[in-house]
Amino acid sequence: MGAPWFQIKHLAESDGLVALSANFALYGDLSDRMMSLAAGLGPTQEIYSIDESFIDMTGVRGDLVERSHKIRSRILQWVGIPCGIGIGATKTLAKLANFIAKTAERKPGSYPENLAQVCSLASLSSTDFESVLAATEVNEVWGVGPRISKQLKAGGIHTVLDLARLDAAMVRSRWSVMLERTVRELQGTPCIGFEDAPAPKQQIACTRSFGHPVTELHQLAEAVTEFASRASEKLRKQGSLAGEILVFIRTSPFRKDPQYSRSMVVPFRRPTSDTAHIVAAALAGLKAIYRPGFKMAKAGVMLMELQSAAVQQTELDLEDDEGRERGALMVAMDGLNQRYGKGSVHMASAGLQGDKRVWSMKQERRTPGYTTCWADMPVARA
């Protein structure tokens, strides 16, 4: 996992390894389709990641397992994505049930056959419930990382059942309040709240590896402009302002070329979400850290010190109304890019060469945009 392609590409010929370039637009569209169908499980949904969500099924009548199987079949038929569904009294138990549902299908014999695809821990008898927990290693629990898992196993706690039987107060004193919360969740006491909307991000980053080594400052400026513009759009989408921006460049650690890696944090005069101000700060930082003679392999920006746009720090009104006008300009810019496609309107310093820019990702093995591009849409002929 995470291995550079050049180190494993020989496996394509010797072992039939299939390599595909990322297609983020396709992934995002399929995720939206899947989430809209999964929402049919219950009245409230919390999208946790691109491929996972929590559904509050409180008050839903009928057989929940049968309902879940129908939703799963619908997702598979309409979107073409297989998934696992886990049902539990708490988020931690639901995550655990989801792991069991997928494992029971992929590894027959690891769990009872009736728990494959859809696993409801809430409907199991106490004996069967404990049997399932005893068959699951403790490191499979949501929130138990490698370090804590190693400590637990050193103390004789090897299975989820061992962890669930611990005294929660003792866990808090010996480890942390976070692990105590996990234990209580395994015992059936909800400790992790349900969020209808995702919390605003504390940092927004946009980074990319280049398709070819980049040595010229103007090429790096194009890339950094593109990254800062995308980060700014995400910032406005969540209704936030940034107090500072970090920009970095680095060479490839896998090449024998001279190595160089630098970053710089540039504060804003006042918190902003204006693309022009953010790009200008990013380019100022880039010029300060750039050194000629190095083959850059990656660059990126990170917006930090984020705060809500609803509460702003202002100054004495000694300037014109440029701020309000630029706010309207950003709204128009986002609207045009949303309607006509990303990059339809962009900063001039991002360049005008489109996909021919030397720093663009190769994506030679990118799958077609079956659901996001008219030209890539499959055509069936009778």
What is the rounded Rg?
Answer: 25 Å
Which structural class is indicated by helix and strand composition? Answer: alpha+beta
Give the mean pLDDT: 88
Residue share in helix: 25-40%
Under the CATH scheme, which class of the largest domain? Answer: Alpha Beta
Task: Please explain how this structure is put together.
By secondary structure, the protein is α+β, with helices and mostly antiparallel strands. It folds into 2 domains: 5-186, Alpha-Beta Plaits (2-Layer Sandwich); 204-312 and 327-356, 2-Layer Sandwich (Dna Ligase, domain 1). It is 39% helix and 16% strand. The chain has 13 helices and 9 strands. It has helices spanning 5-8, 11-14, 24-38, 64-78, 91-106, 126-134, 146-154, 160-164, 168-174, 177-186, 217-237, 275-289, 322-340; strands at residues 44-49, 52-56, 85-87, 118-120, 204-214, 240-251, 261-272, 296-304, 307-308. Strands 5, 6, 7, 8 and 9 form a 5-stranded antiparallel beta sheet that branches. Strands 1-2 form a two-stranded antiparallel ribbon. A two-stranded parallel sheet has the order 3-4. The longest helix has 21 residues, at 217-237. It is globular. It starts with a helix and ends in a 42-residue tail after the last helix.
